[in-house]
Amino acid sequence: MVQQVTRGIKISVETSFEGSFYKNYKIQYAFGYKVTIENQSKDSVQLNARHWKIYDALNNIEIVSGEGVIGKKPVLKPGESHIYSSGCLLTAPFGAMRGYYSMINFTTTKKFKVIIPTFKLSAPFAIN
């Protein structure tokens, strides 16, 4: 698990290898990840958007941006957490992801970025 705190917002990420399959005559490696967003600050905040960079071992980079996470824009009061699971496909048995969440602080009305720390994605058979 990787963790990082930005402006009182703690991000924790756990990953899993879900398997492989063929799609359009190419092998795809499926990975899952569970993100916990914990508000350790004294202010209420809302997650408005996400921005990901997904890397694989073949130097492919995919950028994913969008509103919220899994169709939600969670509001977190001090001490609250939001947990969600998602996944991605890679064309190699290992890679990495990193990014940030765009959030707003309801007390100051200021927007800010919360760093999602780089986390590795690796199929167990690819690790030596």
Account of the protein in words:
Residues 3-128 form the ApaG domain. This is Co2+/Mg2+ efflux protein ApaG. The chain is mainly beta. The protein has one domain: Immunoglobulin-like, CATH 2.60.40.1470. 0% of the residues lie in helices and 70% in strands. The protein contains no helices and nine strands. Strands 4, 5, 6, 8 and 9 form a five-stranded antiparallel sheet that branches. The mean pLDDT is 95.
Draw up the topology in text.
Blueprint: E1 2-6, E2 9-23, E3 26-39, E4 45-56, E5 61-67, E6 75-76, E7 81-90, E8 94-105, E9 111-122
Antiparallel strand pairs: 1-2, 2-3, 3-7, 4-5, 4-6, 4-8, 8-9
Identify the CATH class: Mainly Beta
Mean pLDDT: 95
Summing up helix and strand content along with how strands pair, one would put the structural category as mainly beta
One letter per element, helices H and strands E, the order comes to EEEEEEEEE
- The share of residues in extended strands comes to over 45%
CATH architecture term: Sandwich
Residue stretches low in confidence (pLDDT < 50, at least 5 long) are none
Under CATH, the topology can be stated as: Immunoglobulin-like
Can you identify the CATH superfamily? ApaG domain
Distance between the termini: 19 Å
Which value, in Å, is the CA radius of gyration? Answer: 16 Å
Give the fraction of residues assigned to helices.
under 10%
This entry's quaternary arrangement is: single chain
- Give the number of DSSP strands: 9
Largest sheet: 5 strands, antiparallel
Number of helices: 0
Pfam family, one: DUF525
Protein name: Co2+/Mg2+ efflux protein ApaG
Domain ApaG: 3-128
InterPro entries: ApaG_domain, ApaG_sf
